[in-house]
Amino acid sequence: MKALLALPLLFTAIPDEMPLVVQTPGRVSAEGRFGWPGVYFESRFRGGDVTVAVDTGGEPVRLLVDGEVRATLAEPRETRFTVSGLGNGEHAVRLEKVTESQSGGPRFLGFWTRGVALPVKPRARHIEFIGDSHTVGYGNTSPTRDCDGARVRATTDTQLAFGPLAAKALGADYRVIAYSGYGVVRNYAGKAPGDNLPARYPRIVPGETAVLPAAADRAWRPRVIVINLGTNDFSTALKPGEAWGSADQLHADYRAKYMAFIRRLKREQPQAKFVLMAAENFAPDVEAVAAQAGAAMLRVPALELTGCNWHPSLKDHRTMAGLIEGAVQPLF
How many Cα atoms within 13 Å fall on the side-chain side of residue 117? Predict the structure, then answer.
Protein backbone atom coordinates (compact mmCIF):
# COMPACT_ATOMS: atom_id res chain seq x y z
CA MET A 1 0.00 0.00 0.00
CA LYS A 2 1.22 3.47 -0.82
CA ALA A 3 2.49 5.06 2.36
CA LEU A 4 1.77 8.73 1.83
CA LEU A 5 -1.07 10.95 0.80
CA ALA A 6 -0.85 12.54 -2.65
CA LEU A 7 -2.05 16.14 -2.70
CA PRO A 8 -3.83 17.72 -5.65
CA LEU A 9 -2.57 20.86 -7.37
CA LEU A 10 -3.73 23.69 -5.12
CA PHE A 11 -2.31 26.79 -6.74
CA THR A 12 -2.40 28.23 -10.25
CA ALA A 13 1.02 27.69 -11.82
CA ILE A 14 2.73 30.33 -13.93
CA PRO A 15 3.67 29.44 -17.52
CA ASP A 16 6.51 26.95 -18.11
CA GLU A 17 6.32 25.60 -14.54
CA MET A 18 5.74 21.92 -13.94
CA PRO A 19 3.69 21.02 -10.82
CA LEU A 20 5.33 18.35 -8.70
CA VAL A 21 3.59 15.33 -7.21
CA VAL A 22 3.57 15.99 -3.48
CA GLN A 23 3.48 13.39 -0.74
CA THR A 24 2.83 13.90 2.97
CA PRO A 25 2.11 11.57 5.87
CA GLY A 26 0.63 14.50 7.81
CA ARG A 27 -3.01 15.38 8.36
CA VAL A 28 -3.85 17.77 5.53
CA SER A 29 -7.25 18.92 4.30
CA ALA A 30 -8.31 18.84 0.65
CA GLU A 31 -7.51 22.58 0.57
CA GLY A 32 -3.97 21.98 1.87
CA ARG A 33 -4.58 23.18 5.45
CA PHE A 34 -2.60 21.62 8.28
CA GLY A 35 -1.86 22.40 11.92
CA TRP A 36 -0.43 19.47 13.87
CA PRO A 37 3.28 19.77 14.67
CA GLY A 38 5.90 18.09 12.51
CA VAL A 39 3.87 17.96 9.27
CA TYR A 40 6.03 17.84 6.16
CA PHE A 41 5.67 17.73 2.37
CA GLU A 42 8.17 16.11 0.00
CA SER A 43 8.76 15.81 -3.71
CA ARG A 44 11.50 15.13 -6.27
CA PHE A 45 12.45 16.74 -9.56
CA ARG A 46 15.21 17.07 -12.12
CA GLY A 47 16.30 20.60 -12.97
CA GLY A 48 17.87 23.79 -11.73
CA ASP A 49 15.04 25.37 -9.73
CA VAL A 50 12.06 24.67 -7.52
CA THR A 51 9.29 26.94 -6.23
CA VAL A 52 7.09 26.48 -3.18
CA ALA A 53 3.83 28.30 -2.57
CA VAL A 54 2.45 28.44 0.96
CA ASP A 55 0.26 30.57 3.19
CA THR A 56 1.99 30.14 6.54
CA GLY A 57 -0.74 31.76 8.62
CA GLY A 58 2.15 33.33 10.50
CA GLU A 59 3.59 29.92 11.47
CA PRO A 60 7.23 29.25 10.53
CA VAL A 61 7.77 26.58 7.88
CA ARG A 62 11.19 25.48 6.67
CA LEU A 63 12.17 24.76 3.08
CA LEU A 64 14.93 22.26 2.37
CA VAL A 65 16.47 21.16 -0.92
CA ASP A 66 18.62 18.02 -0.82
CA GLY A 67 18.58 18.21 2.97
CA GLU A 68 19.94 21.77 3.10
CA VAL A 69 17.81 24.53 4.65
CA ARG A 70 17.16 27.18 2.01
CA ALA A 71 14.58 29.37 3.77
CA THR A 72 12.30 29.69 6.78
CA LEU A 73 9.04 31.32 5.76
CA ALA A 74 6.63 32.92 8.23
CA GLU A 75 4.82 35.76 6.43
CA PRO A 76 1.06 35.47 7.12
CA ARG A 77 0.00 35.52 3.48
CA GLU A 78 0.28 33.47 0.28
CA THR A 79 3.97 33.45 -0.58
CA ARG A 80 6.05 32.00 -3.40
CA PHE A 81 9.71 31.25 -2.81
CA THR A 82 12.07 29.96 -5.49
CA VAL A 83 15.39 28.23 -5.08
CA SER A 84 17.39 28.53 -8.29
CA GLY A 85 20.93 27.82 -9.45
CA LEU A 86 20.69 24.14 -8.61
CA GLY A 87 22.57 21.60 -10.66
CA ASN A 88 20.49 19.98 -13.42
CA GLY A 89 20.49 16.57 -11.74
CA GLU A 90 17.87 15.02 -9.47
CA HIS A 91 16.84 16.87 -6.31
CA ALA A 92 14.61 16.35 -3.28
CA VAL A 93 12.51 19.21 -1.89
CA ARG A 94 10.82 19.31 1.49
CA LEU A 95 8.66 21.83 3.34
CA GLU A 96 8.29 21.16 7.08
CA LYS A 97 6.39 22.70 9.96
CA VAL A 98 8.77 23.98 12.62
CA THR A 99 6.67 24.65 15.71
CA GLU A 100 3.28 24.03 17.31
CA SER A 101 -0.05 25.57 16.33
CA GLN A 102 -2.68 25.54 19.04
CA SER A 103 -5.01 27.61 16.86
CA GLY A 104 -5.02 28.18 13.13
CA GLY A 105 -2.42 26.73 10.85
CA PRO A 106 -0.71 27.07 7.47
CA ARG A 107 -1.93 26.11 4.01
CA PHE A 108 0.34 24.29 1.59
CA LEU A 109 -0.23 25.34 -2.02
CA GLY A 110 2.29 23.30 -4.00
CA PHE A 111 5.74 22.77 -5.48
CA TRP A 112 6.76 23.60 -9.07
CA THR A 113 9.83 23.40 -11.26
CA ARG A 114 10.88 24.48 -14.72
CA GLY A 115 12.57 21.12 -14.95
CA VAL A 116 11.02 17.65 -14.85
CA ALA A 117 8.80 16.22 -12.12
CA LEU A 118 9.94 12.87 -10.74
CA PRO A 119 7.98 10.25 -8.81
CA VAL A 120 8.26 10.35 -5.05
CA LYS A 121 9.78 7.33 -3.33
CA PRO A 122 7.65 6.79 -0.21
CA ARG A 123 9.24 5.11 2.80
CA ALA A 124 7.99 1.67 3.65
CA ARG A 125 7.96 2.25 7.41
CA HIS A 126 5.40 4.48 9.16
CA ILE A 127 5.34 5.53 12.80
CA GLU A 128 2.95 7.81 14.70
CA PHE A 129 3.73 9.77 17.86
CA ILE A 130 0.93 10.92 20.17
CA GLY A 131 1.64 13.16 23.15
CA ASP A 132 1.92 16.52 24.82
CA SER A 133 4.54 19.28 24.94
CA HIS A 134 7.37 16.76 25.35
CA THR A 135 6.37 15.16 22.04
CA VAL A 136 5.98 18.61 20.45
CA GLY A 137 9.55 19.53 21.40
CA TYR A 138 8.37 22.54 23.42
CA GLY A 139 11.24 25.01 23.88
CA ASN A 140 13.81 22.32 23.10
CA THR A 141 16.38 24.65 21.51
CA SER A 142 16.22 27.24 24.30
CA PRO A 143 19.48 27.96 26.17
CA THR A 144 17.46 28.87 29.28
CA ARG A 145 14.51 27.56 31.27
CA ASP A 146 13.16 31.09 31.68
CA CYS A 147 10.76 31.54 28.74
CA ASP A 148 7.72 33.61 27.92
CA GLY A 149 5.34 32.68 25.12
CA ALA A 150 7.40 34.39 22.45
CA ARG A 151 10.56 32.54 23.46
CA VAL A 152 8.73 29.22 23.57
CA ARG A 153 7.49 29.80 20.04
CA ALA A 154 10.95 30.85 18.84
CA THR A 155 12.73 27.87 20.41
CA THR A 156 10.34 24.99 19.69
CA ASP A 157 11.49 22.74 16.85
CA THR A 158 9.38 19.62 16.48
CA GLN A 159 11.73 18.26 13.82
CA LEU A 160 14.38 17.99 16.58
CA ALA A 161 12.03 16.30 19.06
CA PHE A 162 12.45 12.64 19.96
CA GLY A 163 9.76 11.38 17.56
CA PRO A 164 11.10 12.77 14.29
CA LEU A 165 14.67 12.01 15.39
CA ALA A 166 13.81 8.36 16.03
CA ALA A 167 11.74 8.05 12.85
CA LYS A 168 14.55 9.42 10.70
CA ALA A 169 17.05 7.03 12.30
CA LEU A 170 14.64 4.16 11.55
CA GLY A 171 14.07 5.29 7.97
CA ALA A 172 10.36 5.85 8.62
CA ASP A 173 7.77 8.41 7.69
CA TYR A 174 6.15 9.94 10.75
CA ARG A 175 3.12 11.77 12.03
CA VAL A 176 3.02 13.80 15.26
CA ILE A 177 -0.32 14.30 17.01
CA ALA A 178 0.63 16.29 20.10
CA TYR A 179 -0.74 19.29 21.99
CA SER A 180 1.05 21.11 24.79
CA GLY A 181 -0.63 21.07 28.19
CA TYR A 182 -3.09 18.28 27.41
CA GLY A 183 -3.45 14.83 28.93
CA VAL A 184 -5.57 11.70 28.76
CA VAL A 185 -8.29 12.91 31.16
CA ARG A 186 -6.85 16.05 32.77
CA ASN A 187 -4.89 18.96 31.38
CA TYR A 188 -2.18 21.02 33.04
CA ALA A 189 -3.51 22.73 36.21
CA GLY A 190 -6.98 21.39 35.44
CA LYS A 191 -7.57 23.78 32.53
CA ALA A 192 -10.26 23.16 29.87
CA PRO A 193 -12.10 20.44 31.82
CA GLY A 194 -13.78 17.91 29.56
CA ASP A 195 -11.29 18.55 26.76
CA ASN A 196 -8.21 16.37 26.33
CA LEU A 197 -5.83 14.92 23.76
CA PRO A 198 -8.01 11.91 22.87
CA ALA A 199 -10.89 14.32 22.15
CA ARG A 200 -8.73 16.41 19.83
CA TYR A 201 -6.98 13.47 18.23
CA PRO A 202 -9.23 13.15 15.10
CA ARG A 203 -8.97 16.79 14.06
CA ILE A 204 -7.26 18.06 10.92
CA VAL A 205 -6.16 21.23 12.70
CA PRO A 206 -5.91 20.83 16.50
CA GLY A 207 -7.66 24.08 17.40
CA GLU A 208 -10.65 23.46 15.10
CA THR A 209 -13.45 20.92 15.26
CA ALA A 210 -13.34 19.59 11.66
CA VAL A 211 -11.97 16.05 11.35
CA LEU A 212 -10.23 14.39 8.42
CA PRO A 213 -12.56 11.89 6.72
CA ALA A 214 -11.30 8.33 7.06
CA ALA A 215 -11.43 7.88 3.27
CA ALA A 216 -9.05 10.80 2.82
CA ASP A 217 -6.58 9.29 5.28
CA ARG A 218 -6.65 5.64 4.20
CA ALA A 219 -3.00 5.65 3.08
CA TRP A 220 -1.73 6.31 6.61
CA ARG A 221 -1.10 2.91 8.19
CA PRO A 222 1.53 3.19 10.93
CA ARG A 223 3.23 -0.01 11.95
CA VAL A 224 3.98 1.47 15.37
CA ILE A 225 2.18 4.09 17.49
CA VAL A 226 4.18 5.64 20.33
CA ILE A 227 2.17 7.41 23.05
CA ASN A 228 3.59 9.67 25.75
CA LEU A 229 0.68 11.02 27.79
CA GLY A 230 0.34 11.49 31.54
CA THR A 231 2.66 14.34 32.46
CA ASN A 232 -0.18 16.86 32.43
CA ASP A 233 -2.66 14.54 34.12
CA PHE A 234 -0.47 14.31 37.22
CA SER A 235 2.02 17.20 37.29
CA THR A 236 -0.26 19.58 39.22
CA ALA A 237 -2.36 19.03 42.33
CA LEU A 238 -6.11 18.60 42.07
CA LYS A 239 -8.13 21.72 42.81
CA PRO A 240 -11.57 22.03 44.40
CA GLY A 241 -14.33 21.56 41.89
CA GLU A 242 -12.46 19.19 39.57
CA ALA A 243 -14.11 15.95 38.45
CA TRP A 244 -12.05 13.71 40.74
CA GLY A 245 -12.49 13.70 44.49
CA SER A 246 -9.08 12.22 45.15
CA ALA A 247 -5.79 11.34 43.49
CA ASP A 248 -6.84 7.67 43.53
CA GLN A 249 -9.94 8.51 41.51
CA LEU A 250 -7.84 10.46 39.03
CA HIS A 251 -5.41 7.57 38.58
CA ALA A 252 -8.26 5.10 38.09
CA ASP A 253 -9.96 7.33 35.52
CA TYR A 254 -6.65 7.85 33.72
CA ARG A 255 -6.12 4.11 33.38
CA ALA A 256 -9.65 3.47 32.16
CA LYS A 257 -9.72 6.31 29.64
CA TYR A 258 -6.19 5.56 28.40
CA MET A 259 -7.24 1.97 27.70
CA ALA A 260 -10.38 3.17 25.92
CA PHE A 261 -8.24 5.47 23.75
CA ILE A 262 -5.95 2.59 22.78
CA ARG A 263 -8.95 0.40 21.92
CA ARG A 264 -10.19 3.16 19.63
CA LEU A 265 -6.80 3.47 17.96
CA LYS A 266 -6.65 -0.30 17.49
CA ARG A 267 -10.00 -0.24 15.70
CA GLU A 268 -8.72 2.47 13.38
CA GLN A 269 -5.23 1.00 12.93
CA PRO A 270 -5.50 -2.76 13.56
CA GLN A 271 -2.03 -3.39 12.12
CA ALA A 272 -0.31 -1.09 14.64
CA LYS A 273 1.75 -2.14 17.62
CA PHE A 274 1.96 0.21 20.61
CA VAL A 275 4.79 1.61 22.70
CA LEU A 276 3.73 3.56 25.80
CA MET A 277 6.18 6.00 27.36
CA ALA A 278 6.08 7.08 31.01
CA ALA A 279 8.04 9.16 33.48
CA GLU A 280 8.61 7.64 36.89
CA ASN A 281 5.76 9.46 38.66
CA PHE A 282 3.05 7.82 36.56
CA ALA A 283 4.89 4.70 35.37
CA PRO A 284 2.78 2.28 37.47
CA ASP A 285 -0.38 3.51 35.72
CA VAL A 286 1.14 3.15 32.27
CA GLU A 287 2.55 -0.25 33.18
CA ALA A 288 -0.97 -1.42 34.06
CA VAL A 289 -2.39 -0.04 30.80
CA ALA A 290 0.43 -1.55 28.74
CA ALA A 291 -0.17 -4.97 30.29
CA GLN A 292 -3.88 -4.79 29.53
CA ALA A 293 -3.32 -3.51 25.99
CA GLY A 294 -0.52 -5.90 25.10
CA ALA A 295 1.74 -2.90 24.47
CA ALA A 296 5.43 -2.37 25.09
CA MET A 297 6.33 0.09 27.85
CA LEU A 298 9.25 2.48 27.82
CA ARG A 299 10.29 4.15 31.08
CA VAL A 300 11.78 7.59 30.50
CA PRO A 301 14.88 8.10 32.65
CA ALA A 302 15.63 11.24 34.62
CA LEU A 303 16.24 14.08 32.17
CA GLU A 304 18.14 17.35 32.53
CA LEU A 305 15.02 19.39 31.54
CA THR A 306 16.92 22.55 30.62
CA GLY A 307 14.55 23.56 27.81
CA CYS A 308 11.88 26.21 28.26
CA ASN A 309 9.99 26.01 31.54
CA TRP A 310 11.67 22.76 32.62
CA HIS A 311 11.05 20.88 29.38
CA PRO A 312 13.37 18.39 27.69
CA SER A 313 16.51 19.79 26.08
CA LEU A 314 17.96 18.72 22.74
CA LYS A 315 20.16 16.29 24.66
CA ASP A 316 17.09 14.86 26.40
CA HIS A 317 15.33 14.41 23.06
CA ARG A 318 18.33 12.55 21.65
CA THR A 319 18.29 10.30 24.71
CA MET A 320 14.58 9.51 24.28
CA ALA A 321 15.00 9.02 20.55
CA GLY A 322 17.66 6.41 21.18
CA LEU A 323 15.40 4.54 23.59
CA ILE A 324 12.56 4.59 21.08
CA GLU A 325 14.77 3.30 18.29
CA GLY A 326 15.70 0.30 20.41
CA ALA A 327 12.08 -0.38 21.40
CA VAL A 328 10.59 0.11 17.94
CA GLN A 329 13.16 -1.60 15.70
CA PRO A 330 11.98 -5.15 16.60
CA LEU A 331 8.35 -4.15 15.92
CA PHE A 332 9.03 -3.31 12.27
Answer: 16
Superfamily of domain 5-118: Galactose-binding domain-like (2.60.120.260)
Please confirm, yes or no, whether 133 is among the known catalytic residues: yes
Tell me if residue 42 falls in helix, strand or coil.
Answer: strand
Name the nearest CA neighbour of 258 among 234, 232, 227, 236. Answer: 227
Catalytic pick among 101, 133, 142, 180: 133
Question: What per-residue confidence (pLDDT) applies to 14?
Answer: 56
pLDDT tens readout for residues 9-26: 444 555 688 999 999 999
Q: Give the whole-angstrom CA distance, residue 90 versus residue 48.
A: 9
pLDDT (tens digit per residue) in 222-255: 999 999 999 999 999 999 999 999 999 999 999 9
Domain ranges of the chain: 5-118, 125-331
What is the number of alpha carbons within 13 Å of residue 185 lying toward its C-beta? Answer: 18
CA 327, CA 88: separation in Å to the nearest integer? Answer: 41
Low-confidence ranges of the chain (pLDDT < 70): 1-15
The model carries a pTM of: 0.95
Q: Residue 244 and residue 246: Cα distance in Å, rounded?
A: 6
Domain 125-331: give its CATH superfamily. SGNH hydrolase (3.40.50.1110)
